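ARCHIVE CARD
Drawer: 12
Card no.: 0347
Subject: one protein chain, sequence and derived structure
Cross-reference: see card 0346
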Amino acid sequence: MRPGQGRQPVERAMAFLYHEAMSRLLSYLGHLVEEHLPQLLLLLEDCLAIPSFSGQEAGVADLLLGFFRRHHLPAARTPRGSVVAVLAPPELSPGGLPATLPEGEARQRLDALLTAIRGRHLPLLAFNAHMDVVEPGEGTAWVYPPFAATVQNDRVYGRGTCDMKGALAAMAQALVLAHQAAVEHPLQRAVMACFVTEEEAGEGLAFKEILHDLQWRPDAVILGEPSEMQIARGQRGKLEFFLRAHGKRAHTSVPEVGENAAYKIARAILAVEALDRGEFRTVGPDPERILERSTLVATSFRTIPFTKSSVPDMAEAHVTVRLARGETLDSIKQKLFDRGGWPEVTIDPVVYRGKSYTGLPAEWPACHPAWEIPRHHPFFAFLRTAVRDALGREPSDRIWPFSTDGVYSAGQLGLPTLGIGPGQEAVAHLVDEFVEIGHLREALALYAYLPFAPAPDDHPRFEVRSPTAPDAR
């Protein structure tokens, strides 16, 4: 017998048994998905009925805590008001935490559970979804009521369906489904589901509290932002700043004795537009080159004071920049100055100083770097294979043009971070926002499968990190 020849039948038998076990698991999960989909839609309906604007997410947080208690899953509220729920092996999990338990003690129990998971050397995967939504705008423009779930043509309409209460409900329901399946099928990893506050106002802020302040650090992160259930492996960065100009007030009958701050701001806005057009001419619209091009948009403009009979002595404009790879506030400022003719206008970064619904203040600059997970990364390979297994198709991948909580997990900490979520990114924040029920079904199936999906043998924790990841704030 040749060396190793005797092992081949054993290895083939082991592989056959493994594939048989995975087939049984996927079949079982498929039946559970159809059972749990109506419950997901009911949870989404309850979430949509609550107008949870940034800093006003208490109602959704309370709803989720009650949901996890009913389904015997441990969950706790963070000081900033996010809800964190944990899926762990049945022998480790304490079940749902009592409603009467003080919030500090609930966090201590969750911390002890996460420590026990680490003690078992079980990988930890984080789910991320935000509870807050943007304002609906002019309510009369909506065909369907923004704060109710309207089902039409296999879609659910309402504010936040796409961005991102659909993914939130799918992740929450997936934990319940996986908790049920874990009784008979061993978990390959624990899951820490993070339902965060204030993402629309300050992306990364509440996720930082979980990952850095509480030190609940996962091995990898799945973001549920809308991607049509395809893989998003990065995003452009985000920067917001104010243009501010000062002048000299005068009566409009003698403007020559004054100094018009509005004209200075107008020239600065034209310079912003020129840089944006220059970036487009250099790179173009190719989505494969999206990380090579920054976009700059002046979004608002005002004079101070606003009167019809005075030359304004102050003026201000707001600019939003989607940053290309490697770009920062300083590099964008330098590009604007290098064009020549920059007026007497300062550039001041926007800082989010809102309060959470629990009363905690914030000091969070709106300046976040771009990030990307390459296609050869083991976490990308894991997720791509999981999509094939759970959904029976080959996923495409993209770079998100918008910003997410990945600015902290990937951009600051260098954690392997990928996105896949229900909904079309183009309808987020729009009137009559919607999510497809087919996307919700796929999201439930994939999120429920991820705790059981096999990881690459040589990278069980997806260990490869960005070599240039900056320090955490």
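Annotation on reverse: The two ends are 61 Å apart (CA to CA). The CA atoms of residues 58 and 357 lie 6 Å apart.
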